[in-house]
Amino acid sequence: MTRVLVVEDDPQLVRALVINLQARHYGVDAAPDGATALRLAAARQPDVVLLDLGLPDMDGVDIIKGLRGWSRVPILVLSARQASDEKVAALDAGADDYITKPFSMNELLARLRAAVRRTEDNTAAPETTLVETEDFSIDLLAKKAVRGGRDVRLTPTEWHLLEILVTNPGRLITQKHLLQEVWGVSQSNKTNYLRVYMAQLRRKLEKDPSHPHYLITEPGMGYRFEG
Ligand code: CA
Hints:
- The chain has two domains: about 5-125, Rossmann fold; about 130-225, Winged helix-like DNA-binding domain superfamily/Winged helix DNA-binding domain (Arc Repressor Mutant, subunit A), CATH 1.10.10.10.
- The protein is α/β, with parallel strands linked by helices.
- The mean pLDDT is about 90.
- Strands 2-1-3-4-5 form a five-stranded parallel sheet, sandwiched between helices.
- About 45% of the residues lie in helices and about 20% in strands.
- Strand 6 (about 130) and strand 7 form a beta hairpin.
- The longest helix has 20 residues, at about 105-125.
- The chain has helices spanning about 10-25, 35-45, 60-70, 85-95, 105-125, 155-165, 175-185, 190-205; strands at about 5, 25-30, 50, 75-80, 95-100, 130, 135-140, 145, 150, 170-175, 215-220, 220-225.
- The chain binds calcium ion (CA).
- The site of calcium ion has 5 residues, from loops.
- One of its GO terms (biological process) is positive regulation of DNA-templated transcription.
């Protein structure tokens, strides 16, 4: 049974989440504040954490840092609309994904399944070597990209960027993370690098680069590869 830890101080939302999750045979623990959340996470070893960032006793980002000190459990952040700085801080602290309130239960369940599946994929097959889409394929081992039967030439920087995205399918990767990994810088004023290189990758890989299907921009936050 997949165990979910719900960290949320809104009792109505907790109730809705518990009912929906239990109906789908998840095991559910609920914590109304950060202190309880950290205690339950250690005691119950959940498979995934749903974390509201606005809690009465602690900043949600501190809870993520606390969990990441000893656990790689997937963390799906529940966050209020318009709080994109908060979401970015949560992702940079080690959250795996976020969903904006108000959300549909179906979307939440889909994100939850994806988060759990990623950890299962990771343990089953640590090395994904071939990423295939309808329009192109990426061989990570041979460092080769093919589109329409022809090799696509990528620069080392483009390759590095692409590799990070395609090895985290469906997952939002923050601008800060990409800048640090690829360019070794963390200044947010360097996001123009990212825009330029992402545009190049789209030109080389996407069928319609101005309406990308695979290399998706999350405005103000980062990028996501949808396989
Ligand atoms: Ca709250």
